[in-house]
Amino acid sequence: MTNHSGDPASLAPTTRRGSRRSARRGLATAAALGLTATLLAACGDDGKPVLNWYVNPDGVATFEKWAEKCSTDDYEIDVQLLPSSATEQRTQLARRLAAEDSSTDIMNLDPVFVAEFANAGWLQEIPEDHWGEIEGDVLEGPAETVTWDDKVYALPLWANTQVLWYRKTLAEQAGLDMSQPVTWQQVIDAAADNGGTVGVQGNKYEAYVVWINALVQGAGGEIVADTEKGRDASVEIDSDAGRAAAEVIQRLAESEAAQPDLSVSNEGTSLGLMYPEEGPGEFMVNWTFAYKNYADTVSPEQLEDLGWARYPQTVEGEESKPPVGGIDIGVGAYSENPDEAMAAAQCITQKDAQVELALTDGLMPSTESAYEEVISDGSYPEDLVELWRTSVDEGGPRPESAFYALISGAIQERWHSPTSVDPDSTPDNSAEYLEAVLKGEALL
């Protein structure tokens, strides 16, 4: 997922590797307005239609491989790279689609974009017969992300989630039984009392909202409810759940376990602190890609000391709600080749593609059948894969709203930085501000 929901975009390359049409890709990423559409050829050199597939910068080499595989005698798929930031991805795609850009055929979408884009009429509806064929195989978490107004507007490709990564020796030193659920308070205190740290995503961006949302849901609440009412959605963050979330953030910010870069931390910054030159390491919440990152870079002895557990509880005894992210595939409503684009999207999201993304790039599947193949391959510890699958299935998506961008922006504005969060004031202030933003009475 991109650097918020999902996915390690903050670490991803900013240029495309192995490009088959680097010049055309450069034009596509240089501008976002509909004017750029005239620069993207609708047909290849052989006269076949060219379908532009806009992708986030995670697993690009695998995307290019599947673009080749899913190209046919009737059309060719060309990969175009989106920016690394989820916000910039949304902006570029929204500008194109608002301009009714016919060259935006297929696109990787953060799950929170689906409702907004579908509500705006920018996405083709997924055929009922195809969704009927795969619906029973799709995990519940990603299945929730592709629907809007009781219709399906995207196909899940991979489904991301966060778990608690930790050094086993640090947990043992702290006396934590990691076979049992642990709370944020326990994790923070264990790290602080034993010279360790706690890694989170605290920068002013989407991943910080992911953390806040998971904390609120883990306390039994929601940031907003009744999102189908659009701007009239019920703002719920000024609640006991909101205050419990704020207490966790405040506790970490004031703790010796807080990492020095807490207010600007992202998915990548805390990775190196798992194995520091000095000290016992960390507890860290992060996405599925973290395992492959460590498996490819640390010694066998260090990897043996890496542990994982379900996302921490906000409130002791209340089951946590791990974040759900990933990537869904949408088909542009203004594509000049809508049938071909839909067929390509179906090919791109097939089981074999999901399995390859998991094994090659650490981006876990959205379907049960793909998970079974990942487990049988043996490249990942089976208990870790099962933890990911359970976390996706039982996790908590962010609010599904056509106005999600406003919701996220308002929360970031009032909850950042983590060092300023106060349970007595932040939930209340953010609720008032969010309500005003949704009603058009305040600007972000």
Describe the 3D structure:
The chain is α/β, with parallel strands linked by helices. It folds into 2 domains: 9-159 and 324-394, D-Maltodextrin-Binding Protein, domain 2; 162-322 and 398-438, Periplasmic binding protein-like II (D-Maltodextrin-Binding Protein, domain 2, 3-Layer(aba) Sandwich), CATH 3.40.190. The chain is built from 18 helices and 12 strands. It has helices spanning 22-30, 60-70, 86-98, 111-119, 128-134, 140-145, 168-174, 184-193, 206-218, 240-253, 289-297, 300-304, 338-348, 351-361, 368-377, 382-394, 404-415, 426-438; strands at residues 50-55, 76-81, 106-109, 147-148, 151-152, 155-167, 197-199, 224-225, 234-235, 282-287, 306-309, 324-331. Strands 1, 2, 3, 6, 7, 10, 11 and 12 form an 8-stranded mixed beta sheet that branches. α9 packs across α10 and α14 crosses α15 (368-377). The longest helix is centred in the middle third of the chain and has 14 residues, at 240-253. The chain is globular. Residues 1-39 have low confidence and may be disordered.
Number of helices: 18
**CATH fold annotation of the largest domain:** D-Maltodextrin-Binding Protein, domain 2
- Strand composition percent: 5-15%
Shape: globular
User: Which residues sit in consecutive blocks of at least 5 with pLDDT less than 50?
Assistant: 1-39
Radius of gyration: 21 Å
Overall number of strands: 12
C-alpha end-to-end distance:
25 Å
Q: What's the pLDDT, averaged over the residues? A: 90
Oligomer: single chain
**Structural class by SSE content:** alpha/beta
- State the fourth-level CATH superfamily of the largest domain: Periplasmic binding protein-like II
Main sheet characteristics: 8 strands, mixed
What is the H/E order? HEHEHEHHHEEEHHEHEEHEHHEEHHHHHH
Tally of distinct domains: 2
Q: CATH class of the largest domain, anyone?
A: Alpha Beta
CATH level-two architecture of the largest domain? 3-Layer(aba) Sandwich
Q: What portion of residues is helical?
A: 40-55%
